Amino acid sequence: MAKTRTVFLCSACGATHPRWNGRCPDCGTWDTLESFREPPAAATAASGAAHGGVAEIWVDPAGAAPVVKATALPDIETVDVARLPTGVAEFDRVLGGGLVPGSVVLLGGDPGIGKSTLLLQAAGRLAAGGRRVLYVTSEESAVQTRLRAERLFEHEPGGGLDGLADLFVLADTSLPRVVEQARQVRPAVMVLDSIQMVFKPDLEASPGSVTQIRRCCTDLVYLAKVSGMAILLVGHVTKDGQLAGPRLLEHLVDAVLSFEGDRHHAYRIVRGIKNRFGTTLEVGLFEMTGHGLRELADAGALLDRSLPTRPGAVICPAVHGTRTLLAEIQALTATGILGAAKRKVSGLDTSRLAMLVAVLEKHGGLRLADQDVFVSSMGGMKVTEPAADLAIALAIAGAHLRRAVPSGTAVVGEIGLGGEVRPVHQLEARAREAARLGFTRLLVGRGGAGTVRIPGLSIEAADTVSDAIDGLDVSSSGGGSASSTRRRRG
Ligand code: TYD
Ligand code: MG
After folding, report:
1. 83-297 CATH fold
2. What is the largest CA-CA distance in the chain?
3. Which of 116, 164, 257, 296 would bridge with 285, disulfide CB 3.0–4.6 Å?
């Protein structure tokens, strides 16, 4: 019999190495290599026996194993991938229209963010639509799942748990038993909440270890392929340990979605990190309520328009896939230590902030070297596109000079290293959304003013970051202190 090979697997990037190292040679992270027992190569090649008995348990309806043969490209028969919409429209949007049969989707996110809630809601909608679903919970009991479902489905159109006869619940942690139940139930979709808690009893490694997670996931990918069911996996992200995180599994699954949001706010965002069947630009928006997650088809709800215009807060129409969301960028500057001033972001790109601070120093006439600069995108919404540059710059300048963007103004533009403000793509969509949510003025980059016309919205251009700062309201200055005055340029 072939020998089991031991390799070392990086829990941060998933790379395998023949030898142990203090630092992963691939991604450079320290102390992340863990020993991993690879299944014997001969067994893998043979029949999938390495898949912990998935092949044995799963009796192929066709009987014999399919003949594997290379095919000329034009001769490959196309099959329409009929997507299976979950019925939760915002979730389907991120999936690219629905679940693809035979695919494996991993949903990652911090504990308590709402992963189980989302998947139980999706499972319920699928079952109500006549699809058979197996919901495997390895963390909660079947009773807990029922109680949660009662709360979630109370207000659904069907009402209560009637009509959910196609939703099967299994509370188990042993992978072979899960596979056996999947064989009996034959669901169209299987949910496994969570991958960290299931284990294969034939492995020596403990549940939750790299070896277990990785091997269980490989088996599940194999199961999805042979059975045609779509599998949704839940993966936790721990603070420091990508051990439990999706990074380890990214290579194995078809799609990785991340469930984000501020636990202290009700808004939640599902974002695609990898998707073999769709774009990763789309985001799904939800609000956590007492009866589960409510879909937010209108992204305007994310923005609190009741707040007055104030220095350091700037609204930017950011594009996410096919949708424009108005993001609120907030900045704060405070006197720090010269040479060791802090630059911190939340929901934004750190290196982009460093560049913008440098541009503000050089071309905006601000002195920020001794200032701690904090910038965040409110509500947990990640904004990483360069189109948010101008909004970030004006939030910092506004906070520092205590001058606000004029009321009713949204801001969008990319800033170059020369301090010039450049036009952005999809200006029309951004302008439309700003106008729809009641903004009357949109500040854009050079040359962007005449290109789009939206009734009720005046589109004005700022050529340089310095011009844009000059356009900030002076009225709200409240008397800038000595440190927050602007140097004269020239
Ligand atoms: P949960 O789905 O259990 O999170 P995860 O599986 O990601 O760990 O949901 C966690 C939080 O959501 C929990 O703190 C309670 C809250 N919640 C609601 O506010 N309303 C609800 O209807 C449900 C089911 C949960
Ligand atoms: Mg959970």
Report:
1. Rossmann fold (3.40.50)
2. 82
3. 296
